[in-house]
């Protein structure tokens, strides 16, 4: 009991010294809980939505996906004839049934041709207004659409784009562009996370979305009283026959949930991964805090031992303090986590994703996971310092320990660290030299982990060397103050090492990713320069296909020399070795594509692949299936019949763009795929006549003005877009890594603050013999800068090594060019110096404020 | 009250006054109202240049406070303190720090040295901080005097307690301050090491003309001084010139006896 009492007293006596460790635990726990609460809330929101929108039983066309999402290659939803509805109505147990038409392959624009689709990635849905919809939507303004000239819009979209009754709306589909005026606005009765929804009357929907009347995408069936969904499904399935997909409400909702759930899970685990990194960094902070507390308390512990405390008791008293710290930090963290979740929801609200705090879901497991993680990590981190406390000899009570003696990093540490780093280096070397990506990534992972641990272990040893070099370069200019700062940073290498290592982890990841990212851009740019022979690329940034009308608009633009269409067709391929490769894709393009993208071949001439009934395969595929020039392969088009094509070219795998593509001409594909099922173009390439590029670019842009879903880019813009895209991804990751870096900076503040406390007498002495406040503050700031730069140097060096290795490995995938983003690297290095300055602000201020006499008198 | 002035022996300081520091009506009080404690009660004192002055008194008499105030480490509640011609009462921290750095030397009872610096770095620290180059010849002489020539590259942890205090003495002397203040500089040493350090202080007064003020409660230490001031209850109650250990001890016994009867 006394153990607990001493722990409690110590904990509260030093609560200031524990504060930053508690914040580190708090932040990490908060991030974990926040992630869990946020994703659970998203799940709840979607569950409610899907439960509300599914009818008892839904019948859909065979080609439709389980979620009822209605998209197929030709840009039109798969449909069934109206006769199905009549059959359903006759089935037993049907109270009512209605046919509906929906499509998500649409773009909706306002009168100025501005895109009304959500930018958040949520779908745009255009469909028929019907009874099932009326269960979840309430018409709040105007009336439901009637006749071809009317459209109803959901209230969130109307709000976001300031749409009013009577405004003109354009619905762009593969059929054409349909314009209508807003007749009504309908509000969701459950939370709609962000889809934009537009309603037409059934007939208009059929004609606008499919281009035929008397077809439906779905039939919504309502069960009569006393009939279960499962029974109804059986009855309906029997009535309509096997050509249709019949699902109960639960099945539809589950399929929807699975779809969203997969995405949410990816997000959840990615965020938890970053929380894990923050935890890892926090461990260093906690270890440092407890090491310093134990060091400062050496005499006290010696006294406890002298009067009869056992090692275990001392050990346990330190661990008990850690336990308290973990509990306090975790409780606060769980609370803050809910706040973070609400913050994230608000943030998502700004990007157009509506989430309601009514749906805020805190599963009972969430606080439990947060608490356990926080407490276990804290106690584990305190274990080493606690053991060291247990080893304090009773003699320590008698010795005059002014400041703790300089801890010398041992030989064991050196050997272990070098072994680990060496092994990690070998792993990285093997990764770089690997000729199989899969094997290489294993080595890479191993190398990264081992070098990281190796650097952490060897950090204190490196600290002496690196700090001396940094000192020689940076601190000499500051004379004796600089020298004292350097000596202070050096006096406890373990502490400096651990503090720097915490910063190292985050910065190593930043450096690694920046190297990989910029190598990606450089490699792609290099490839574009070498192989692209066209001027303009037309594509949709949201992955939509290009409608025939838009393609026509491109083709009729003046000044064009040629326009190449490019489609992707699903197919199963049977090769001469007798094997069938399912779910392959054939890239069907106009023959000019061979000029637009100059792909190297290892055999044959690529232009020949565009001859009738010909195709090309890629090197790896040819090798795997023993395909040679002239081999015949059976291509079973999913949207058509089976073709037997002759292989006339084998393309190199040494490419970035279109890696693994198998080409054939559109004309060849058209022989086996009926026109109405032919997929729309994925991409369109346009090449201007010589010398007319600029005019053509402007003309092309204005020709596509009516189709805001497509972007036309010349090579310069395309490269920029690529760069921006990777830049955005990197920024997102940096943003998430910021948490780990913030914790690391807290670690620097913590180390300095505790060092200042520990050196109170020294500071008093220096002030007494004439060190000015300004010099004192400068000394602490410089120590901080040196620690930060030490961490940055290690982190950036390690990260660049990882990045370069990853590039070597990815060279197998076409990442040929290693590009070290020096401005970023140097920027991060310089920023680290400022981080050091910033971290020293409060410790330096407090040191400056110390009363000289009290400081000297401190025991 | 006291006007004990001796002829300055400090080389090359002929222009200076014979009084290195003086306090006039200095009051130092802590707290206010009922809980007000007066540590110094209207103290007047002159510290003669080129002399070794010891301040003695029982615990709580205010002797350390007086030294701290004279040295510019502590502020006074009222009254004035002059260091040579400079009034230090009312100086801002920056000026006070400079004054301590350039004109005052310190020897504390313990923890005098920075553990990260070696002996010679500790000795030259005040000058380094000030950005001044130490006078090489003088430095050599000081180092020679305190007998540290062989240990200049040692860190404090590698030196004995006596050696550490000698480094502190050397540091105090090296910058040629106007006054050196010692706060029980031999309090932590055994009698032999203590005698050594006191011997250095004595010699620096005799041979180098240094002014030294030392707080002590050890009659033997006080016997090295030219003059002993006795403090009790924040007031200077007596003084003695050319003390010996015995006369100091006798005087203290008197005070104790009086303290008990009053």
TrEMBL record, chain B:
Residues 21-258 form the ABC transporter domain. One of its GO terms (cellular component) is plasma membrane. It holds the Pfam family ABC_tran. Keywords: ATP-binding, Nucleotide-binding, Transport. GO terms for molecular function: ATP binding; ATP hydrolysis activity; transmembrane transporter activity. The keyword ATP-binding applies. CDD domains: ABC_MJ0796_LolCDE_FtsE. It comes from the Bacteria. This is ABC transporter ATP-binding protein. It comes from Streptomyces aurantiogriseus. The lineage of its organism: Bacteria, Bacillati, Actinomycetota, Actinomycetes, Kitasatosporales.
């Amino acid at each position: 009991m006394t153990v607990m009492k001493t722990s409690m007293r110590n904990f509260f006596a030093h609560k200031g010294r524990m504060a930053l460790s508690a914040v580190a635990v708090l932040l990490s726990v908060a991030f974990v809980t926040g992630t869990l609460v946020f994703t659970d809330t998203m799940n709840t929101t979607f569950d409610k939505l899907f439960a509300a929108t599914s009818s008892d039983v839904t019948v859909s066309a065979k080609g439709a996906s389980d979620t009822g999402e209605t998209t197929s290659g030709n840009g039109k939803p798969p449909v069934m004839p109206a006769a199905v509805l009549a059959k359903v109505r006759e089935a037993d147990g049907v109270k009512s049934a209605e046919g509906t038409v929906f499509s998500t392959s649409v773009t909706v624009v306002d009168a100025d041709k501005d895109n009304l689709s959500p930018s958040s990635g949520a779908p745009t849905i255009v469909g028929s207004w019907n009874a099932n919809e009326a269960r979840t939507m309430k018409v709040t303004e105007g009336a439901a659409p009637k006749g071809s000239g009317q459209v109803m819009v959901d209230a969130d979209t109307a709000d976001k784009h300031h749409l009013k009754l009577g405004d003109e709306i354009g619905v762009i589909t593969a059929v054409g562009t349909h314009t209508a005026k807003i007749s009504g606005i309908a509000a969701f009765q459950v939370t709609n996370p962000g889809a934009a929804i537009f309603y037409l009357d059934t007939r208009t929907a059929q004609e606008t979305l499919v281009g035929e009347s008397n077809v439906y995408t779905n039939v919504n069936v309502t069960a009569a009283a006393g009939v279960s969904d499962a029974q109804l499904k059986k009855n309906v399935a029997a009535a309509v026959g096997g050509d249709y997909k019949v699902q109960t409400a639960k099945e539809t909702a589950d399929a929807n949930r699975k779809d969203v759930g997969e995405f949410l899970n990816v997000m959840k685990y990615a965020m938890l991964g970053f929380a894990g990194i923050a935890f890892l960094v926090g461990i260093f902070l906690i270890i440092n805090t407890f090491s310093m507390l134990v060091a400062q308390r050496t005499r006290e512990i010696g006294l406890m031992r002298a009067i009869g405390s056992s090692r275990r008791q001392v050990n346990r008293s330190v661990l008990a303090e850690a336990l308290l710290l973990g509990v306090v930090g975790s409780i606060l963290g769980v609370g803050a986590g809910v706040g973070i979740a609400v913050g994230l929801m608000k943030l998502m609200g700004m990007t157009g994703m509506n989430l309601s705090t009514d749906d805020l879901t805190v599963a009972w497991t969430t606080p439990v996971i947060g608490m356990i993680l926080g407490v276990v990590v804290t106690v584990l981190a305190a274990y080493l310092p606690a053991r060291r406390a247990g080893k304090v000899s009773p003699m320590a009570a008698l010795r005059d320990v002014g400041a703790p003696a300089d801890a010398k990093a041992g030989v064991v540490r050196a050997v272990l660290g070098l072994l680990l780093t060496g092994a990690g280096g070998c792993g990285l070397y093997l990764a770089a030299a690997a000729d199989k990506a899969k094997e290489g990534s294993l080595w890479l992972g191993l190398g990264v982990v081992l070098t990281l641990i190796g650097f952490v272990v060897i950090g204190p040893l490196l600290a002496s060397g690196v700090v001396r070099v940094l000192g020689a370069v940076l601190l000499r200019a500051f004379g004796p103050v600089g020298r004292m700062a350097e000596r202070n940073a050096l006096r406890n290498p373990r502490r400096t090492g651990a503090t720097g290592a915490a910063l190292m982890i985050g910065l190593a990841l930043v450096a690694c990713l920046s190297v990989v990212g910029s190598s990606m851009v450089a490699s792609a740019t290099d490839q574009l320069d070498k192989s692209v022979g066209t001027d303009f690329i037309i594509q949709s940034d949201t992955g939509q296909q290009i409608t025939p009308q838009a393609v026509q608009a491109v083709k009729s633009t003046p000044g064009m020399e040629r326009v190449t269409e490019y489609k992707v067709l699903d197919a199963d391929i049977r090769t001469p070795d007798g094997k069938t490769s399912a779910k392959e894709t054939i890239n069907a393009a106009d023959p000019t594509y061979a000029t637009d993208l100059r792909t190297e071949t290892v055999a044959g001439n690529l232009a020949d692949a565009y001859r009738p009934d010909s195709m090309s395969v890629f090197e790896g595929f040819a090798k795997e299936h023993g395909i040679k020039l002239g081999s015949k392969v059976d291509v079973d088009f999913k949207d058509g019949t089976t073709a037997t094509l002759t292989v006339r070219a084998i393309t190199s795998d040494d490419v970035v763009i279109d890696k693994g593509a198998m080409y054939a001409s559109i004309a060849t594909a058209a022989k086996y795929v009926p026109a109405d099922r032919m997929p729309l173009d994925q991409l369109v390439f346009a090449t201007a006549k010589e010398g007319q590029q600029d005019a053509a670019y402007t003309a092309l842009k204005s020709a596509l003005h009516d189709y805001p879903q497509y972007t036309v880019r010349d090579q310069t813009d395309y490269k920029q877009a690529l760069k921006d895209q990777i830049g955005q991804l990197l920024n997102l990751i940096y943003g998430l890594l910021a948490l780990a870096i913030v914790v690391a900076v807290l670690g620097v503040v913590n180390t300095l603050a505790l060092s200042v406390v520990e050196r109170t007498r020294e500071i008093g002495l220096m002030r007494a013999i004439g060190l000015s406040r300004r010099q004192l503050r400068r000394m602490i700031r410089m120590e901080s800068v040196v620690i930060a730069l030490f961490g940055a140097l290690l982190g950036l060096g390690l990260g660049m090594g990882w990045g370069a290795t990853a590039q070597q490995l990815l060279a197998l995938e076409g990442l040929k060019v290693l590009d070290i983003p020096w401005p970023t690297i140097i920027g991060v290095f310089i920023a680290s110096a400022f981080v050091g300055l910033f971290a020293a602000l409060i410790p330096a201020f407090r040191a400056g404020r110390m009363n000289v006499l009290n400081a000297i008198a401190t025991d | 009250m006291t006007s004990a002035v001796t002829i300055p022996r400090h080389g090359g300081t002929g222009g200076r006054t014979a009084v290195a520091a003086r306090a006039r009506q200095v009051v130092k009080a802590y707290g206010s109202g009922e809980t007000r404690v007066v540590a110094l009660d209207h103290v007047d004192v002159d510290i003669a240049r080129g002399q070794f002055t010891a301040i003695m008194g029982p615990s709580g008499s205010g002797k350390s406070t007086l030294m701290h105030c004279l040295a510019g480490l502590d502020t006074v509640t009222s009254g004035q303190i002059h260091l040579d011609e400079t009034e230090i009462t009312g100086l801002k921290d920056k000026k006070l720090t400079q004054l301590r750095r350039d004109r005052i030397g310190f020897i504390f009872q313990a923890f005098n040295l920075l553990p990260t610096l070696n002996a010679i770095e500790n000795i030259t620290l005040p000058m380094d901080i000030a950005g001044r180059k130490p006078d090489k010849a003088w430095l050599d002489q000081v180092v020679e005097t305190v007998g540290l020539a062989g240990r200049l590259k040692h860190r404090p942890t590698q030196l004995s307690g006596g050696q550490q205090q000698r480094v502190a003495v050397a540091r105090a002397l090296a910058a040629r301050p106007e006054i050196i203040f010692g706060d029980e500089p031999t309090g932590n040493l055994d009698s032999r090491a203590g005698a050594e350090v006191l011997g250095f202080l004595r010699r620096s007064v005799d041979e180098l003309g240094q002014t030294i003020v030392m707080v002590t409660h050890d009659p033997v230490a006080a016997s090295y001084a030219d003059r002993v001031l006795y403090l009790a209850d924040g007031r200077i109650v007596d003084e003695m010139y050319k003390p010996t250990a015995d006369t100091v001890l006798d005087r203290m016994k008197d005070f104790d006896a009086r303290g008990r009867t009053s």
